[in-house]
Design brief:
Layout (H helix, E strand, L loop, with lengths): L6 H11 L4 E5 L3 E2 L39 H4 L2 H9 L2 E4 L6 E6 L2 H10 L4 E4 L4 E6 L5 E5 L2 E4 L5 E2 L9 E2 L2 H6 L28 H16 L5 H16 L7 H13 L4 H14 L3
Parallel strand pairs: 6-10
Antiparallel strand pairs: 1-2, 1-3, 3-9, 4-6, 4-8, 5-6, 7-8
Length: 281
């Protein structure tokens, strides 16, 4: 006898048929953890974690990157256990060329009504999702009670919503342009060579080669990604951190490489701060 399909799975198939990549979410509205093969990104994750879709393993792995529109995957035995435990359906907005402005409270909604163009809205437990047509970089806490979920992020599916979906406005894109994190101090320029000589690290080729090697070290890590990221940050700072060479652009390149391996922005920030502390900077 064929087992009845769990309710979230019905919803997922309907969304997938309309081109929206989906994944099951467990209690707490979070993705299922990676399987043993993929734990700590030992499998390397998807290439650069840039596009949604299942890992080579059949499980529901790598959070937002597991999202798929393939009905064969959604109804596969490997996903069946996850659907039986799922409390709701998640989706990857960026994979459907969408952006969700997550308004988490009444104050955020009042602000949006005056600052953003009207679009399709979906009620949430405490606020609303405003959905726009077009993808952008995801960014949390762009202002009090406001997150942006699009590429490399997931959102809960809470229904079709009401209203006509508008194109993604510049006003939303501008929200993701944030000031540098306060834990990334401005480079302190100190004399690098006695007698006023020119700092050798300021040679563009030397510095660029060092940053490129650090990015490669992080990208090629097949296990112990957390530790690799920290050790790489430590090595870069020990070489270039005291002479004023490093800029926010260089730091951003390292953070991007780490997040492509599955690290969170918070972990990158903490690892950078810990490396600064370890070096007495």
């Amino acid at each position: 006898m064929t087992q009845p399909m769990p309710y979230p799975q019905h919803t997922a198939l309907s969304l997938a048929a309309s081109g929206v990549p989906v994944l099951p979410l467990r209690r707490g509205k979070v993705p299922f953890g990676n399987c043993m093969t993929c734990a700590d990104n030992a499998c390397g994750g998807r290439p650069n974690m840039k596009t949604p879709g299942p890992c080579r393993c059949p499980g529901v792995c790598h959070a937002w990157a597991a999202a798929t529109t393939d009905p064969a995957v959604i109804v596969s035995p490997a996903w069946a256990a996850a659907w039986r435990q799922a409390v709701c359906v998640g989706y990857h907005p960026g994979g459907a060329d969408l952006t969700v402005v997550d308004l988490d409270d009444a104050d955020a909604i009042v602000w949006a009504r005056t600052a953003l163009p009207a679009t399709r809205t979906v009620p949430t437990t405490r606020g609303q999702h405003w959905i726009y047509r077009g993808a952008m970089t995801s960014c949390n806490a762009v202002r009090s009670g406001v997150d942006i979920k699009s590429t490399m992020a997931y959102a809960r599916y809470l229904g079709p919503g009401i209203g006509t979906m508008a194109d993604l406005p510049d006003a939303v894109r501008a929200l993701a342009v944030k000031k540098p994190s306060p834990v990334r101090p401005a480079p302190v320029i100190v004399p690098a060579v006695a007698g006023g000589g020119e700092c050798p690290h300021r040679t563009p080729a030397y510095l660029d080669r060092g940053i490129a090697m650090a990015e490669q070290r992080i990208t090629e890590a097949s296990s112990a990604v957390h530790a690799t990221v920290y050790r790489t940050f430590l090595a870069v700072l020990s070489r270039h951190g005291r002479c004023g060479c490093l800029t926010d652009t260089h730091v951003a390149r390292l953070f991007t490489a780490a997040q492509a391996k599955g690290e969170t922005a918070r972990h990158c920030t903490d690892a950078w701060a810990n490396a600064l502390t370890a070096l007495g900077m």
